[in-house]
Amino acid sequence: MSVSKTYRVGLVGCGRIAKVHASVIQQIEGFSLAAVCDIDKSRRKQFSDLYGVPEYERYEDLLEKEKPDLVTIATPNGTHYKIASVCFERGFNVLLEKPITIKNEDAEKLIAVSEKKHVHFFAVKQVRYNPAIQVVKSAIEDGKLGKIFSSSLVVRWTRPQEYFDQSDWRGTRALDGGGLLNQGIHYVDVMQWLMGDVKSIFGKVERFFHRIEIEDAAFGLVHFKSGALGSIEFTINTYPHNLECSLVLLGDKGSVKLGGSAMNKIELWEVKNMPKPVVPEGFPPYVYEGGLYQGSCPNHIFVYQDILKLFRGTKSTVVNGNEALYSLRIVNALYESAEKGKEVILRN
Questions:
Q1: What is the DSSP letter of 11?
Q2: Contacts by 45-50 with C-beta closer than 8 Å and gap 24+?
Q3: Is the overall model pTM greater than 0.85, yes or no?
Q4: What's the pLDDT at 294?
Q5: How far is CA 36 from CA 10, 27, 95, in A?
Q6: Are residues 135 and 229 in the same domain?
């Protein structure tokens, strides 16, 4: 693809996270927002008026009339598979919000059709771009922590009942998929990215307080292919607000804790012959409902910049569908383990 070309993006879904995508697209020289789509007339009109682009009720019409270079899908989780399938079958590149799908087999089908049609399947994994995580990733790749034998992921967040009541799809099995799947998958992704592939997992889930169909707490014991052991503790019941989002890594040459409210700080650094690095200041986490709770750090601009690099034929670290499938398989294996009451071996 051309180095000087401006790539047109069709945005499907005009909900809360879509505002981040639209803003970022407009910021990057090399991308432009071509059109927006949503089944809700008021939402799509608001976006259309704000950004001065055409609006569509049906994404099929957007594809046919606008022929964008990239389709960003930011709709409820359970709709991702169908929309992305149509896009790939018609030869369009796609950027999917998290989770890429609810079911593993749906993600696998999307990967297969994107490869068959020779189009790109990108996934939003913006948390990887947190400066603190990038520093730890570099140290691991350089062998500074030695042999890592243990990791512990903790997500102690809050989501009030009002959060789920705001949209009819949130908290449902069919369209949301799961608490860990929706709220925690970014951090499961980071754990896997730093620790490597998972061999098996034993999990438990529970719904303690929310009036929803899915779990509001999940716990897992993880066995990595490297031989290391790990744990996952996830809850959206923390009172009265988010407490922490952390990942502890223990190696025979170093101990590190990524922490803060969104895994955006290095809270502990004890590494042999390596002083604590200076971590650049990143974006602060999203703040919702007047500070009642927070989300992840809004690093979407780096996702789009990496896509642009790939389009222009330069080195890119953007996450594709194959890589995004790893964390999806881990979460679904935890769910399967909780349902069956036994350890689940992950297939390749």
A1: E
A2: 46/14, 47/11, 47/14, 47/18, 47/22, 50/22
A3: yes
A4: 83
A5: 6, 17, 14
A6: yes
